[in-house]
Amino acid sequence: MACMYPATSSSPEILYPYIEKELIKLLGSETNWISNAANAASTLGFLMPMLNWAGFYLYDGSELILGPFWGKPAVTRIQIGKGVCGDSAKLRKTIVVEDVHQYPGHIACDLFSNSEIVIPLVKNNQLIGVLDIDSPEIGRFQEDDRIALEKIATIMLDHIDFPTIV
């Protein structure tokens, strides 16, 4: 079992490579997708500064269903094309929202969330779901976060055997 400690710096150049190494160590020895997804969400929530939610919404063939997460309880189902998660899934594109209160159709789970980044999880051209990360800080996510989190999502897709729609 991996025993992680907070990174010594919140600088993206130090933080994200540290998270990548921790995830590879943590996910490499386990095969259960639920355990791996839960640990991945918890790792992000524990190691990234200024977050209040990190987790997965998984595509069931018609909508996104809440998966393993770190944070307060959340909306259970999200329609494709609705809110930030649904838009990211529909477009298969990462969406960074500086201020969620300005995003048309934003789905509020936690009144303290002010910014959000959602990375689509696509494997073999198939939508698996999205990685959703929220922060209480307006403007928390920048371009360096997007690049690093897209790489981390790829690591997760390589190490977590998410269920797929047949």
From TrEMBL:
This is GAF domain-containing protein. Signal peptide: none annotated. Belongs to the free Met sulfoxide reductase family. Residues 52-154 form the GAF domain. PROSITE patterns: UPF0067 (PS01320). InterPro entries: FRMsr_CS, GAF, GAF-like_dom_sf, Phosphatase_reg/MetRdx. It holds the Pfam family GAF.
